[in-house]
């Protein structure tokens, strides 16, 4: 009985898709711009009743799916340029509005100005929602749009309108938190494999291990995008703060005893829909996951991540002085003993040491590794606490967690010895700690003053 | 097993509600305007992270629920007046926009103007979505707003912004069509009883009869308003076009044999949420219901309503000439024989006949009823085909069905002999026919030219 | 979305029923005994493959549903008499078995004897399971059988075979505990109204009250009898041990605050299927309900019933000496003052007092009621602790709860002042207490020695 | 939302398991026979109420799971030998029964004899049902029992009693037909991989291919063994009768267009539970699958298998004469030309040719293969139509399908060129056709007279 409701529901979805595709397919897909323009106009005008408008929009959406990248860009440009508000009408409405400010007529005038600003672009796009899986279609369409945007700023108002609409649809109140387990549909699990962005899932066996009884996996879903996780987090239940991601990913490792677990480690968080950029729900995810975990495991009281430091090595290359400054005289001595000349980490020679750090081979040289440990940890601490871009932390993962109220708790040496781990941060990882007592204050301090919470140990490391 | 998923899901909802109410309840509800203004400002600014913003908004929403009508109006006025866009910023952005029109900078300028127009009102309102059943809360809040709007046009921009947001949320692509049966949750069925707007449901027995095997009931639901139908339609499966609603509502009537059914009669359609005024989904409902019925009963080929004519008697009072014009010399003779003087239906004396038609007593006088039949049917046909307000049919039900592509198929004499039926249309009812072949053309003709489709018989009746 | 799975599943059930009924209906139902005998033989032989055997059995089951009571009895007698084991074959197999006892051949011989005993009766009956809702059909058929059994002992082996089979099917491991709430299907709630055996449910309003947030209702279901509760219990969550059932049933009473609840009162337990006599699951129900309640309300620690004493008045009539013995000299004095002569409760005159106790009018006479209180409580205590039939408590409700490990905790004066309450026990009710610490020991002591656990107060009352 | 009900249900199952295991685990598992005997006696007597009996049984079942094979056999022997009926009591009851035959007392006496035969073995075993997943436990226990049975006939009565009980529990009326798709739980799909008995599933990719839109997979489930298929069938939807299983299994093959499908090929049927031997439901599976397919694909009208002939090569070894007889003079000539001497297929030299047929290398020799084709097809036709064991077809797959009413429709040359296919039937496969018009008659003819239905072509092949 278990799966039947699920199966039959998604089947009827599939059937509907097939039926509609067949209906739509009766006509050949017309990719001719003039034809598309005419269709867009019909959509924008909504002639012939809503039902037939939707059907027409559905055909147009199907057309879009058959276009190549250049054609899609043209399609979106056409919408952006030709279906915007009419500047003359806007000017009139604005004049009336300003004239009415302070009088009882102001409110009506505001509504009229708003109406004049309302573009037909969005009307067209949201009608595409009529195709099966229309929400997913629009999210993917926005992903296209974002790619084109860099070269084509004229798409910006269209993007903003679409972002606003997607923000409305993906309001966190509409999202559903679900646990994902080995009993979840294979079609969903297959997507996790594709979407996992932090520690690649190697096989179904690897996936099964990540869903075992000492793990938890949660995702947010939208009611109209079934089997499509928006963001998901993988959690390990442990007896202490994890300092080594290999141990977590090892499919041969024994099961942990969850009755003793005190610590939940979020070791992978992946957002899956590029088309939802700017629509935030990550912080709600962690909050709700923590609530759920606490209910199931009352002994849990430490909630932390074991996170990569994706921008560290790249940043070090750009700031040779930082590495130079991180080497104390004592370090320099040890480095010299391990065969690293002072020139190699001098500001203008820093490339030499960084080149040596490429790949993980150096880690096998115990003396060298020992000599580097303090230097690199110090450098990482300074990077996390001090490196800024546009007044926010340079590191994308740090931005996410610090913005959500976490603190930089601990740096871990040789914690991710995969090629990717060595490449991005010489194997270093960091624990961000979510302390329910401090989250609120941290969010506020970070948002208003850019203040970053960090443990004494990390703070001491960073100190000069 | 059947109901368990359902039950447990809604239970956890209830539990969540209780928990949150308890959290919120810790503070006494502060109804003081200054306090509310401060809270609104905090909401609008979103300080302290999204999670705490939501929590604050939830408290404010709870406050709203404890306000009386006058206080609510004040609350909404405060939002409308104090959290709108800043006219000066709008003026600046508009100036830059107009200056940029036609240049590559136009698009960016448009986005900036749009940003300047974005008010904090909506930001505040949508954060209320954070309370359990937040969507229903906002729908009900808009119902309040609509009531206040008549006296307080300054609320209009707030209403428009909220309507826009609700239209986004209640996009028909998000709605779920569900059959409602005697196996549906009692809590849902209880709501049908309360919401039924056409033919009052007298008892659970009456309701059960309307859900029997020769009936169907369908409703649209929103995923975040479970157990809350948005609009529902009651269908009877028959062998011919129903001409008598009493027969349909009679709980003693024998079950129809659905294997012989050729005709689906939509005998009651009720929209339930005043707060969704302007958000349309009724036409999609009928389309999807027809699709579903066809799949289950392949012999069905007639889809029609048996509808009230709610505005007929009221309209006749206001147009005494129409009644006078509907009486042919032959009618006049029959009326005279039945004791109705010619003066009683003369244009300036029409009140006399209309007064006699009050209540249904006249229907018991066979001679009088016979003499009136042609007159009233003719009057009704002209009312439906000709009476207009703002270029659209005067009758609200006619507006709905004709706008959806139906045609006026047949008028039925003594079809609703309830007090309400006599009062609004002297017992007359009308069948609107949904002919899948003609719907599209009808929608188009009605929308563009106001053309109304009608059967030959009705058209002949209306002819002068 | 919530209810859709539910609805569609049960619909497909209904559709299947209709389809099958139509298939079956092609032939007229033949009620002629010779025809039935032939059909039974075909069923018993299982000719033509299992699929067609099942179809044939389904036809026969449909036939049964169209028979009147006398015909059904004839049908069942035919199965009982003509499809039993063959005594001669049994004799042969038995002889071989006894000869083999103690030798290695014993086991095979036992299997052969068992095969010879296997009757075709059950084979016929269980094939009836092929009709939709076949399990319910067999349960109802056994209810018929039990009614006929009293007059027709020849049906006994058939009854025993069917009971054995039903016991296998209704093994408690297969039953599902479900909470019933106001969100449960109306079709299910309607059945509760019909099945409630202790305190009649007066209206949907009354039912809704019993499902409110300070109440719980649980039932056992069988996976093949959806929407058909087998046994259900109604629970009130209170702050003390209830002593008055009117208070619990009062639909005007305010909601209790469940966060303060310490006590769960089982105030109504109804078994619904007479055809499941002898199949026990009541004790599992209470155990699982207690577990579920504890999980949801950790402060709960008292689990008790507020139960009727259905056999008390009837027993008193049959044992006039018991009443006489319950009147102490002090009572006699008070009774005399209230107008009850000593003769009225003398062993041979006891009818007089009992006659006065008919109806509840006496309770309005404060002096009389006060004089009777001790007497009747004493009598009730002795009845519960001492009255035996076949070595088990005379009172059916006492048998159930004491057999499940409860103890007699408290007697309550004027606790059920309904006509039924006065008629069966002069308004007295009893609390049976389920003390998790004592249940096991009580069950054992009761089963092995017939020992009854009771509170000191009740024990003192009963003492002579 | 989709999977959540599913997930939470199975989670609560898991949690229950954990909790109970913890409860049980408090005591060390005692494997000492005397201790076990005592526990069995307590179970059989059911002391201390049903709840504690169940708990005790659950402990015993847990014990069983920790025993090794020899200990399990001892455990089952103990139950079989020591908890059977008492021969003396049986003798008494039997004597009374025979004395009563023909008198009104017969029926009561039969019931008493039946009671005397009722053993405590089954009582013990069914109480094991109390552990979570108790049904699966008993099915697995019977699988053990069947393994031991060959060497230990004394276990036979226990096996028969358990089979009878499992037959009652697995009555086809209780089974649920479910479609399995790529949306089914991964935990279920993983089991398919393990259980597939006909064409091994190589990878998740292979599995996904078998669940694609031109395939169907159905299984029977028991409500108390969720995620545990009892038997499953894989179906391909095609435009003609498949003659080549490689084509079906090729994961690179293009998707078939199911709108054109006329033919459903059951290309793999696997029963999964050895412990359910003797409990039949395979024929119901095919009937219900055919019904379901017809509803979804109205153009389907051919329902057939593409089946292995698992016993062909083995049978040919044992019947050298059959091969010799299958070679016509024309064949002999062709074989000689291909290098096969007449001696190699003479009755006493047949091993030589059969040895050459080992492995599939011969198939690459076009001349040899051509020379062998008629011979082997003829041999296979005779094997299927004529080879008998205990009056039923020697071939297990033939027994299954012919018993279900299929006919031998077509033999296919080089249809399964896997090593297994060559080994068991030199690459030959057979289509069994399920013709709804003939199934009933075929079942009857096969059951009563052993008559096998076959197409003219196959019949002609077999003719001598």
UniProtKB/TrEMBL annotation, chains A, B, C, D:
It is an enzyme of class 4 (lyase). The keyword Lyase applies. Its EC number is 4.1.1.9. Keywords: Lyase. Pfam families: MCD, MCD_N. The keyword Transcription does not apply. GO terms for biological process: fatty acid biosynthetic process. Residues 83-170 form the Malonyl-CoA decarboxylase N-terminal domain. GO terms for molecular function: malonyl-CoA decarboxylase activity. Residues 173-435 form the Malonyl-CoA decarboxylase C-terminal domain. This is Putative malonyl-CoA decarboxylase.
């Amino acid at each position: 009985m278990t799966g039947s409701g699920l199966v039959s529901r998604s089947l009827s979805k599939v059937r509907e898709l097939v039926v509609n595709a067949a209906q739509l397919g009766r006509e050949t897909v017309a990719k001719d711009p003039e034809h598309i323009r005419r269709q867009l106009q019909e959509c924008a005008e909504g002639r012939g009743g809503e039902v037939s408008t939707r059907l027409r929009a559905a055909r147009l959406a199907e057309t879009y799916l058959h276009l190549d990248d250049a054609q899609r860009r043209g399609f979106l440009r056409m919408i952006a340029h030709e279906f915007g508000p009419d500047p003359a009408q806007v000017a009139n409405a604005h004049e009336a509005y300003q004239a009415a400010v302070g009088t009882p007529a102001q409110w009506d005038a505001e509504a009229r100005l708003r109406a004049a600003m309302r573009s037909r672009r969005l009307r067209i796009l949201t009608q595409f929602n009529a195709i099966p899986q229309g929400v997913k279609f629009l999210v993917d369409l926005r992903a296209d749009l974002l790619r084109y945007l860099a070269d084509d700023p004229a798409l910006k108002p269209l993007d903003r309108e679409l972002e606003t609409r997607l923000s409305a649809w993906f309001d966190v109140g509409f999202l559903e938190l679900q646990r994902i387990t080995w009993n979840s549909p294979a079609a969903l699990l297959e997507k996790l494999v594709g979407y996992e962005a932090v520690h690649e899932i190697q096989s179904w066996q690897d996936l099964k291990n990540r869903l075992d009884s000492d793990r938890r996996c949660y995702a947010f879903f939208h009611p109209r995008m079934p089997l499509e996780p928006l963001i998901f987090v993988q959690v390990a239940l442990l007896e202490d703060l994890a300092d080594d991601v290999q141990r977590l990913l090892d499919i041969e490792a024994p099961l942990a005893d969850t009755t003793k677990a005190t610590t939940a480690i979020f070791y992978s968080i992946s957002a899956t829909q590029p088309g939802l950029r700017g629509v935030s729900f990550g912080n709600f995810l962690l909050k709700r996951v923590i609530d759920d975990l606490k209910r199931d495991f009352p002994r849990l009281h430490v909630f932390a991540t074991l996170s990569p430091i994706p921008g560290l090595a790249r940043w070090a290359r750009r700031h040779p002085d930082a590495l130079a400054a991180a080497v104390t005289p004592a370090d320099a001595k040890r480095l010299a003993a391990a065969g690293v000349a002072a020139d190699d980490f001098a500001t203008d020679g820093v490339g030499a040491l960084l080149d040596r750090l490429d790949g993980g081979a150096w880690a096998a040289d115990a003396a060298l590794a020992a000599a580097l440990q303090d230097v690199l940890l110090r450098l990482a601490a300074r990077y996390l606490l001090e490196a800024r871009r546009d007044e926010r932390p340079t590191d994308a993962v740090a931005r996410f967690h610090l913005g959500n109220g976490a603190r930089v708790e601990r740096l871990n040496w040789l914690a991710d010895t995969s090629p990717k781990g060595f490449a991005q941060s010489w194997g270093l990882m960091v624990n961000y700690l979510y302390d329910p007592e401090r989250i609120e204050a941290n969010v506020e301090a970070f948002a208003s003053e850019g203040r970053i919470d960090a443990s004494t140990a990390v703070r001491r490391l960073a100190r000069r």
